[in-house]
Amino acid sequence: MIALSHRALVVGAISLLVVLALGALGWFWYSAEQSRAASAYAEALFRVRLAAKPEDRTVAIQTLEATLARYPSSSAATQAAYQLAALRYDAGQHAAARSAYEIALARGASGTLRTLAQAGIGYAWEAERDYPKAIDVYRGTLSRLGPKDFWRRWPTTSRACSSG
Known about the structure:
Layout: H1 6-49, H2 54-70, H3 77-90, H4 94-106, H5 111-127, H6 131-144, H7 158-161
Helix pairs in contact: 1-2, 1-3, 2-3, 3-4, 3-5, 4-5, 5-6
């Protein structure tokens, strides 16, 4: 068996402490960054809720764009991209809306948000009167949906099923 010197043990312990300290520092930085991103997205999505007038809509669009550019990997980026697309669509910016819907899909939109983003792309093509592309998008969206995507559990008690 090889005996380790006292110096080797001290160097190993110090190295381990440095690695652990760097790991903790990285984790704290990441946590703080996620907190800043969540705060920025909350502010941006709050502006979306207030966007009743066209000038408010413009501010909301700019805020969402800036937030998406600053924190593109945040978990809130998908929802923000979808909201940006909806605002652009409402503003008549159909090509830009389509791009934002595609960003939402690229960021991993799932479930209902994925279906809505895909349909939004079709709506944007339809608004531009490019009906063949809209139909292709709608068909593609519908082909990916299964019967359980619309499944709803109905009450099975005799009272719910009775006509009286």
